[in-house]
Amino acid sequence: MTTDSQADPEPTSMRERILDVALDLFIANGYDGTSLREIAEKLGVTKAALYYHFASKEDILMALHMRLHAVGRSALAQLADGKVTVSQWRTLLDAVLEEMLSQRKIFLLHERNQAVFEKLHREDHVAEHEDIQDRFRKILSDPAVPLRDRVRMAASVGAVFGTLFMFRDAFGKEDDDRVGRFMRSSLDDILGLRVAAPTKR
Amino acid sequence: MTTDSQADPEPTSMRERILDVALDLFIANGYDGTSLREIAEKLGVTKAALYYHFASKEDILMALHMRLHAVGRSALAQLADGKVTVSQWRTLLDAVLEEMLSQRKIFLLHERNQAVFEKLHREDHVAEHEDIQDRFRKILSDPAVPLRDRVRMAASVGAVFGTLFMFRDAFGKEDDDRVGRFMRSSLDDILGLRVAAPTKR
DNA sequence: GTCTATATTTCGATAGAC
DNA sequence: GTCTATCGAAATATAGAC
User: Fold this and answer.
1) Which B-chain residues 11-40 have CB contacts (< 8 A) with chain A?
2) Which of A81, B156, B172, B182 is 20 to 30 A off residue B121, Cα-Cα?
3) Does pTM top 0.85 for this prediction?
C-alpha cells in the first residue's frame, strides 16, 4: 500500500512499473488502442516478460481498476446508512476531492474508457466491491431524499468533473489554487450552503 | 437531414439502420469491443453487406461522429467573437440543452469512447470542423474572461452532464420534468444569475 | 525474470458469384 | 445489395531455452 501513489518517483517492483506505463498509455490511446508490445517496448523488455507478472492484458486493467476502489472508502464508510443530507454530501465531496486529485490519472483512465470498464464489470463476476461511482449512484437513487436535493448532489459531482477533468486544461496550471477555491465556492452555491452573505457584484 | 432523429421509428435506408445498430452497440460495448460481425448479425445480414454501405468500420464511427457536429451549431453561431459573459453562457447552455437531450445517445457514445475519438481526431486529418466540446474548451480558455467566471461556466457544463448523463438513472424517468427544472435552477445558482433583488434578504 | 520463437484467435477487409 | 469464401494483419497468449 506504499507504492501506488500517482507518480512513483522510482517504482519498486516491475509489476508497479508495468502498471504505471500501462496507465499512461491506456489514458492516451485507450485500452483497446494499446498493445502489450507498446507497453513492453516502453519498458525496454519484451511482450513475453509481461506475462510473468500478469496473467493477461485484462489483468493489468483490473489491477488499475482496483485503485479506484480505494478512493473514498474511508469517507464513505463514515456515512451512516439511511438518508443523506446535502450538508453531509458537501462534507463527503470535500473529503473525496483530495483523493480524486491525488489519483487523477485513475479517474482519467475510467473517464476515457467507460465502455471498456462497463464491459469488464459485466463479464467478470469478480469485482464484488462497489466503486465510488456505484456508491454515489446508490445514494442518489434513494427515494427517501427529496428529488431536489438529489439533483443538486448529482450536479455538484458533475461540477467537480467539469472543472477538474473535462475542462481542466482550459485553466492555466499555475491557477490551480484559485480554480480549487472558485470550484468549492460554486459547490456551496449548488448545494445551497452559502451562508446568506451578500454576493459581491 | 430528415432521417437522423434519435429513435428512428422505421429507419429509411439500410445505411441508417446500420448506424442505429452500431450506435447502440458502440455505447454498450465500446467501439473496439464491437465487431462488424455483431452489427451484421443484429441486422440479419453478413459482414460483407456492410461494406456496400460503408468503406470501413471507422467510416461508421465517423458518420456517427458527424451528428455531434450539428449540435449547438446555430446556438454557437449567434455568439459574437470576443469575451463571453456568464449571462451569455447561460443562454447558450439553455439552447444547447434541448439538443443534448434529443441527441442523448450521441453524447453517450462520445462520453463512453473518449479515447477512441481522440485517437480518431488525432490521426484523421478530416474533421476540420470543431465539435461542441472544442468550442466550449476554446471559450473557457479565453484569459480575457475572469477566471472565476470560467470556472463557473465549466462547472455548469459539468452539472448538466452529472444530472443528465452520469447519474441520470438515479432519478425516475417519470420525474424528467422536475429534474430538468431543478437542474436549471442550480445552473442559475452556479452562474450567480439568481436575481436576488439586492434590497431583499 | 527475461528471452526467442510460435501458436491461436479474431477481426477488418476484399474478390467474385448471384 | 447481399452472399460465400478467403486473405492478411495484428494482437493475445504460450512453450521452452537461458
Assistant:
1) 26-33
2) B156
3) yes
